[in-house]
Write a structure and sequence with these properties.
The protein contains 2 helices and 4 strands; from the N terminus they run ββββαα. The protein is α+β, with helices and mostly antiparallel strands and 123 residues long. Among the domains are: 41 residues, Rubrerythrin, domain 2 (Single Sheet); 37 residues. It has a two-stranded antiparallel ribbon with strand order 1-2. The protein has a two-stranded antiparallel ribbon with strand order 3-4. It is elongated.
Length: 123
């Protein structure tokens, strides 16, 4: 004997089968954003939201690039500076001549100290 279950595949509490309206939907507006590759992303906002609160720019979920509302002039991705080493920062502050002079002074002090150490060891 085959069983006939009237609610198979339906959620409990879903209401009558074939119900079209599952409640009231609030009014909303669609805002389109475009990235530099021409991809469109649509975001929905409540119609009661102040237009000043709607962001002018978002990150595109497809490319990760910034996306703006102006289709013809999408925002450009900011160029990230690579990590700088300590030496790179020093080279920004010092000229080549200053670096040579500092190196020469440091070597001179080192040679004097080593010379003094050798004299002390001989005695």
């Amino acid at each position: 004997m085959s069983g006939n279950n009237a609610i198979r595949g339906a959620r409990v509490g879903s209401g009558p089968m074939g119900e079209i309206d599952h409640g009231m939907r609030s009014a909303r507006i669609a805002v389109s954003y475009w990235d530099a590759e021409g991809n469109e992303t649509v975001r929905y906002f409540s119609a009661d939201v102040d237009p000043a609160e709607i962001p002018d720019q978002i990150d595109s979920p497809k490319t990760g690039l910034p996306a703006g509302r102006d289709r013809e002039n999408p925002p450009v991705a900011q160029k990230n500076e690579p990590y700088k080493t300590h030496l790179a920062y020093v080279k920004e502050r010092r000229t080549e001549e200053e670096a040579e002079q500092l190196l020469e002074d440091a070597l001179k002090k080192l040679r004097q100290r080593r010379g003094d150490l050798k004299k002390n060891q001989e005695q």
